[in-house]
Amino acid sequence: MDFGGGAVVGGIAGVGILGALWNQLGIYWSKLVGLFFVQLELSGPASRALFMFLINKCRCTRWGRIELISCDEYVRPLRRNQVIATELIPTEPTVWFYGKLPFIVARPNPACIKLTMIRFVCNYRDFLTNAITIYNEYNNNKTTSITSDRFFIRRFSGEVGRHQRSENNQPTSPGGTAEQAKFSGDFNGFEKETSYPLGWTRDQLGQPLVGSSMDNLSLQPQMLIAVEEAKRWRESETWFKDRHIPWKRGWLLYGKPGTGKTAFTRALAQHLNMPIMLFDLPTMSNQDFVAAWDRANAFAPCIVLFEDLDNVFHGRKNVAVTGMEQGLTFDCLLNAMDGVTNTDGMFIIVTTNDVSKIDPAIGVSDGTASTIASRPGRVDRTIEFTPLDASGREKMAVRILRDFPKQLWEYLLKEGEGDSGAQFQERCCRVALRLFWEKCIQPSDEQVIHV
Predict the structure, then answer these.
(1) Pairing verdict, β 381-385 and 249-255
(2) 244-266 per-position pLDDT tens digit
(3) Under the phi-then-psi rule, with left for phi > 0, alpha for psi from -120 to 50, and beta for the rest, what region is 44?
(4) Kind of pairing, strands 302-306 and 346-352?
C-alpha cells in the first residue's frame, strides 16, 4: 500500500488548517487592537487638510526616518529662484504629538495618510473636525495662522496627448499615469499649506510680489473701473448670498497679443489676495476638466483663468486636439461655468487674441458701448485691451526711465504711439539699458537716442 500520497494530502490539509487558524487569529488580534486604538486612513481633500494640520499644529519626534524633497522655488527676499529643501511626512510610521497627545502617522503614498490614535485618550472626530476647519478657513482667507498670503498660481493639466510614443518610438505605458496626473497638482514640490521649508518661512516663498501691483500697470480708465468692481465683489460675499445672487464673476479680456491681458490678471489676483487656477485646456478631456474644476473650487475665492481660448475653440469646435485623442467639449466647459454645480467664489477670466472666434454662448461684447456681455452668468463683463494711450505710455516711461532727464525720453512717447504695452516696454528698456551700460547719467539734452 502507498502511504506517501496520503501523507502529502494530509500535510496539505494541515497547512490549510493552520492558515485558516492564523487568519482567524489575525482577525481576533485586529479586534483586540481596535479596543484600545483607532486606526484611520484618509485620502483626497481630507488628507490635504490633515497634512496641513500636522505640519503646522503638531510636532514630530525624530525617532525615525526623515524625508525631504528639493525643488526650485522663488525666494522673495532674494528676488530669484533658489533650490530649497522641504521636509515631508515620512512614509514609515512615526510618532507625533498634538500638545501632549501622542499618535502614530504613516504616509503609504503621496495622496494617503494613516493615523493610529489611543481610543480613550483622543476623540478622533474632534481631531479631524479641527484639522478640516483650519484647512477650510485657510482656503477662504479667514485665518492668518498658516500664512497671510493667498496669492499663488496652480496649473492644472490633463492627459490629452500625453500617451504618445517615447523617444525610442515605443508606446509609453499608461500604468499609473492617470493616478499620478490626478495628484500632480496636489503633491508636487513646495506648497505652503502642506510643506515645511527649511531655512525660509512660507511667506518668503512663492510667486514674486511686486509692491502695489496695480500701480505698476499702465491701466486705462475702463480697466480701473473694472478693478474697483472686482474689489467690491471680493468684499461683498454676504450681500450676494443674502439676495440669492451667485457670488461669482466672469470677465472676457480681449485684444491683440502684448496688450497686457495676462499681466493684468496676475496683478488683479495679487491685488485681491486670491490664487490663480490656470487651466491648460488643450491638454484636457472632459474628465480631466471636471476633476480640475472640483479641485479649484476648494480654493475659492479664486481666479480661474482660461488663457487664449481662441487657440482651443473656434466657435464650439475644439481645434486643439490631435489624432485620436478626445479633448474637452464645449458643452462641458459651459456647464462648469454656469451649470448646476456651486460656483460661489469663482472669478472666471477668459482671455483671447481674436474675439471673433469666441462663441456668444460664453459671452462677448454686444457691439454697443455697454460692457455687459452677451451671456451674463458665464461672462458678465467684457474688457478690450488696446494699444497704450498717451497717459499709459508716459506712466511706463517714467517707471523705466526715471533716472534720466524727462526731455531725453519724452520723444519716446510720440515714437511709441500705437505700441502695445509689451512693445512700448521693450522700446523704453532698450534706451534705459543702453544709457545704463554707457553710464550716461547726465547726457546732453541735444543727444538723440534711437531705438
Answers:
(1) parallel
(2) 888 999 999 999 998 889 999 99
(3) left
(4) parallel
How far apart CA 48 and CA 112 sit, in angstroms, is 9
Cβ(174)–Cβ(102) under 8 Å?
no
pTM of the full structure? 0.74
Residues 6+ apart with CB under 8 A from 145: 56, 134, 138
Distance CA(173)–CA(6), nearest Å, equals 48
Q: What is the pLDDT of residue 148?
A: 65
**pLDDT value for 224:** 87
Q: What's residue 375's pLDDT?
A: 74
How confident is the model at residue 200, as a pLDDT?
Answer: 86
Other CB atoms within 10 Å distance of the CB of residue 141: 16
Contact 73, 205 (CB under 8 A): yes
Q: How far is CA 423 from the centre of its chain?
A: 29
- Asked whether the beta carbons of 364 and 358 are under 8 A apart, the reply is yes
Rounded CA separation 409/31 (Å): 82
- The three-class DSSP label of residue 38 is strand
Cell numbers describing residue 242: 443674502
The helix-helix angle for 124-139 and 45-57 (nearest 10°) equals 90
Q: What angle do CA 253, 257, 263 make, to 5 degrees?
A: 60
- Residue 184 has a CB neighbour count (10 Å cut-off) of 14
Grid cell 483607532 is found at 38
* Residue ranges of the chain with per-residue pLDDT less than 50: 1, 143-144, 163-189, 441, 443-451
User: What are the pLDDT digits (tens) for 406-449?
Assistant: 777 778 888 888 898 889 889 888 888 888 887 654 544 444 44
Distance of CA 36 to the CA centre of its chain: 41
Residue ranges and CATH numbers for the domains of the chain are 22-150 (no CATH), 210-385 (3.40.50.300), 390-438 (no CATH)
User: How far is Cα 103 from Cα 248, in angstroms, rounded to an integer?
Assistant: 42
Residues 330 and 362: their CA atoms lie apart, in Å, by: 10
Name residue 104's beta-bridge partners.
95, 116
Per DSSP, 163 falls in state S
Q: What is the pLDDT of residue 173?
A: 36
The pLDDT of residue 443: 46
Q: What is the reported pLDDT for 254?
A: 93
Buried b vs exposed e over 164-177: b needs ≥16 C-beta within 10 Å? eeeeeeeeeeeeee
Using the CB atoms, write b or e for 276-311: b if 16+ within 10 Å: bbbbbbbbbbbebbbbbbebbbebbbbbbbbbbbbe
